[in-house]
Amino acid sequence: MPKKRSGGGLSPLQQTAKFLGVSVLAGAVMAGIAMPAAGALGLAAKGSVQGFDDIPDSLKSPQLSQRTTILDSKGNQLASVYSRDRTVVELKDISPYMQKAIVAIEDSRFYQHGAIDLKGVLRALNKNAQSGGVSQGASTLTQQLVKNYFVEEAGDDPTKVAQATQQTLGRKVKELKYAIQIEEKLGKKKILENYLNITFFGEQAYGVEAASERYFSKHAKDLNLQQSALLAGIVQSPTRYDPINDEAEAKKRRNTVLARMAEVGDISKAEALAAEKTDLGLKVSQPKNGCITAVKGASFFCKYVEKVFLSDPVFGKTKEARAKIWNQGGLTIRTTLDPQAQNSVQASLKDHIYKSDSVAAAATLVEPGTGKILGMGQSKPYGYGKNETEYNYSVNADMGGSNFGFPTGSTFKPFVAAAALEQGLPATQQYPAPYSMDYPSPVSTCSGKNWVNTDGATVENESESEKGPYALKEAMAKSVNTYFVQMISDIGLCPVVNMTNKLGVVQGNGDKIPEVPAIALGSKGLSPLTMASAYAAFANEGTYCTPIAIESITQKVGNEQKSLAVPKSTCTRAMSKKTADTVNTVLRGVVDSGTGQEAGLTDRESAGKTGTTDSRKNAWFVGYTPNLAGAVWVGSAKQNVEMTNITIGGVYHPEVYGADTPGPIWKDAMSGALEGKQAESFQLVNIPDPVKKDKGNDGGKNNDNGGNDNGGLTTDGGTTGTTDGGTTPTPTFSLPDGFIQGTSNGGNNGNGNGGNRG
What we know:
20 strands; single chain; 21 helices; alpha+beta
C-alpha cells in the first residue's frame, strides 16, 4: 500500500511516470502480454480493484433497449412503448455532420489514438494527482462506450447504475481493458455507430435517432450542421444543456461545438460563424410512450397486449425473463385489432354514452373460429384524470380489469340451455315457470353433495304477467327466470358448470363458476371478453376458441430481425353442432321478437341475449352473427348506481334494460364492423311450438289454491288463460346474506342477483 506524500510517498511526477508506464504496456495486452497488477501501482488503496489480468477477457455488447411498436392487424401503428426511447440505426443513416460534431467535441483525436489517448491521460492525471482523487477524466469515445454498456446492463436498478458510473480507478482500469478489446474487435466506424446509438441525449431520448426525432422531428440522417452541433453538445450534460428548458445555455454550448469543429478542420470558420448566428430551430415532438398514447381508442387493448406478453409462458418461463424481453424492446407486435371494427366500437360508444355520465360502457368484439379480438373499447378514456380510468372493464382482474367483473343477468341463460340440450332435454321442454317460487331444493352437484335451499331463497320473474308453462324458445325470448331455475333443478348444477368450463367462462377474479342455482340468473361477475368469446362458440357450431390478441412479433437484434413465438388460440368442442344450432335458433328469436328486438341487425342474421341485474346496476347485450360476436356492458364500475330515472348519452331512461342501452351500442358497433362483409346465415333447426299445459298449476309457492285454466290450450305460445282458483299473494323476494351484487363470494345459496329480464 503506498505511503502518503509526507513519508516518502509518490510525487505527482512519479505518479505520472507510473501511469504512463501502465498506458504504454496497455497496448501490449493485444499482443498477449499481461499488464501489471493494479496493486503494483498503488491502486488497491482506492478500494477493491482487480488486477488487470484478473478482469474477464470478453465484454459482451448488451442488447440495446429500444422502443416497441404495437400495430393493428393491417399494420397501422397503435402505440409505441419503451423503457428507453431508442431506435438503433446504422452509421450510414446518421448525418455526416453529426458524426463529425460528436467526435470533435468528445474525442477529437478519435481516429488517431487507440483505446486510450495518452495526451489526455497525462493532462488529466496531473490534475487528479493534485486533487488526490479523480476530478478530471480523459475518456475516449471507446471508453465512454464501455461505460454506457455497463449503464445499459444496469437498466433501471439505481445501485447498479451507481456502480457503473462511479469515479474510481478500479472502474477505470476495467473500462480500459474492455476498451482495448473493443478497439481490436469493432474498429472505429462501428465504435462510433454504437456510441451514437447508446448515448443519452436528454428528454427521454436514447441514441441519436430518438434525439433527432425528439428535438427536430426528423430522422438522424437529415440533421444539418447546427442541429448536429446542438445534439453533440447535449451529451456532456443532458440536463444543463437541455435546449427545451434552457435555450440560451444550449445555444452557447452548440456554438462551442461549432467552434471546435472549425478548429479541428471539419468545417471552415465561415461556416461556423454562419451557423452560430442561427436560432436553435427546434421542432419538438412530445414523448409518446406507453399505451396512454394509443390511437383509435386502443389504449385498453394495448395494455391488454402488454399484460399478455408479461404473463404468457410462451415469452419466457419466468415473470422476470418476460419482463426483461419487454423492457429490452425492439419489438414489432402485430395484433389482431381490426381498424374497421375498432373504429366502429369507439364511434358507437361515443354516440350512445358520454364519458361524463355516471355510468360507463365497455364493448368487445371477437371473431368466431379464431378467437381474435377485433375490437375493444370503453366510454371512459384511459388516463388518471376526471372521467378517466386505468381499469379495462372488458377483461378480468389479472389482465388489468375490475376486481370481479360484472354480474351478467340473463345473458347467462344460454349456457344453462346449452347444458340442458347436451343432457338430452328437447328444445320443446316445458316447465311451469310461475311468477315467483322458492329455489328448488335439493339440486345435485358435481361433488355429489346436493345444494339445499336452507335460507328459503326465492326467485321471481320481471313481470307478474309472466306465468308458465313455457317452453325454451318462449322462455328465452321473454327471459323467464323461474323457467331456467327449474331447468337447473332438472338437470343438476354439474352439467352447467361443465359447460361454462368448456366455454372458458370464469369469474372476473379468475375463480370458476360456483355450483349454486342463482348462476342461471347471472349473479356472478364476468367480463365482456369472457362473454363475447363464449357466445362466439355458438356461432362457431359449438367449438370454443380461446381469445388471442397477438398475430406475430419480430424483435430487432442488432441489424437483424428475428421472429418470436406467440400464443395461439386453442379451439375445442364445447357442445354438439346440433346443440349450437338449437341455441342459435332460440337466441335468434330473442332479437326477432323477444327482449332484444332493439339490438337486432337489419341487414343480416343475428342472435343474442339481453341481461339486466337486480336494482338495474348492470345492463348487458351479448350477441353474434355467424362471423362476429360481441358483448356490451353498461353500469357503474363501483356497482353503486341504480340505473333508474337516469340520463345516459343525453337520453333519459325511467329504467334501463339490456335492450335499450347496451343493445343499440352493440347494434351500431356490429353494423360498422361488418359493413362490406359477407352476410352469412345460421343453420337453424325447427323447434315446434308446444301445446300449452294447464296454467292453473303454476308450480310456485303459495300455490295451494291453483285452479284450472279457463283460457284453454294454446299452440302459439302466446296468450295465457286466467285462473279461477283464487289469487296468489304477492311473494316477498329476499336476499340471503353475502349476495351483494358484484361480490365474489356469493354465499351458500347464491340468490337471484341479476334476475331481472332486461
